[in-house]
Amino acid sequence: MSLGVQQVLGDANIQEEGLPGDFSTQDMMCDGEGEDAKDRWNRELPIMQFPDEIILPIFFYFSEAAEPAHSCENTPFRDWAGNLRWTQLMLVCRRWCNIACTTPTLWRTIDMRDKISKWSELALIRSLPATIDISFPSGPITEDHLSILEPHWHRLRSLCLRHWTSCALSIFRSDLPSMEYLQISGFSRDSLGPEKGEIPDLVIKSTNFPNLVVLSITRVVAPTDPSVYSRLRKLALDRCPCNLSLAMFIQLLADGPRLELLDLRHFLHHLSHDGADVKPREPPKLLPSLDVLNLEDHPPSSSSLFLSRVALPPQASVRINSIIGQGQDETTISLTTLMPPDRTDSLPLLSTLTHAMVNVGFEGYSITDRPLERSLAKVHLELVAPIMAPWGGRMEHGLNDLISVFAPAAATLTHLQIGGRCDTRRTETWVAVFRTFPAPTYLEAGTDEVVFAGGSRGLGGRMS
User: What residue numbers bound the domain in which 2 lies?
Assistant: First the structure.
């Protein structure tokens, strides 16, 4: 926020602490001498001398309506509740109220409730001709909603649905030329919804979504139109069937020069492989602009195959959560098996890491580079077993993966934390850890004497 706006906000706080001449806001709005009070207010406060061009940013500072719904950097999702704090500024005086009422973009963010409110109807009118951001935070779309929204489909910039019913399909049968952001995060089977097991196909194509840049859908058929993928900045697919092969899907991603975030959950095994796992290896496809890759709830084989077919830029953070299925031999599956064979080329970020933590539990284990700031982690790898895994907290399993996966960071790793039971009895394992990472300045690994014995040997007696 600029110094000018800060000064304006500082002056505006006067109206909360007490008005000139001991007037209150309520006096100013309701007293019979309201007009005179407003005139005195305007004359006595320096803030009232600012032009509209300076006052208007104050409203936008208090309002999320000034930012596109897809402005969040590390997530494809926006907050459900619209921020209406800016409406309180309309009480400052008649002039401020008029500024708000004649600024359509302040009114564009509209949360629709089960019962259509007067506020929603007013916002639809006052937002004209600006584009609008519509969300349904607590219930599904109904016929009543459709009736008041239909004249405004051409203005729809973003649509967020928490619950799904079949009547919502009519929205997607229309052209949505202004749509930039589509989020469907839930699925409901009610009297209006699809039959059990039926997955809706919105037929998302560039012809009816020509400007879509953020797509986040759950249990909806994934698009196959290459032109849709070429424009996307953020893509999140959760349990979405897709009539594409793995190779075709990766090619569509690689052809999208703007893709910054890719979030795939329970999705990769819906793709046909076309023998991709046995064909001669092709060079991985570069995702040039990717900043965030999130793979969750996939079998280890699906995660591994995908990672072996893509190359990430140096800035891309990676979060992988793989689930070991019933009947699989957990002892043969490790985080190492998730990694591509040429991980230095595919995941160049690994060679720059300075922190690492291994956490081995009874139902899974993980390696991350930001143990105390998980949300800021650049690398987080995790295996989860549906029942108590046979490794039973054995640290050796995790340490071997640490050596294998984080080996590119051997020269840069300075902070090492070992979480879980440090009960591996093989000193040689700890020797290998400290020989691979010879320059730790911070070590947290319990007090097991085997740890210190391995450290002393691995670090040449520098550990005491």
Answer: 1-50
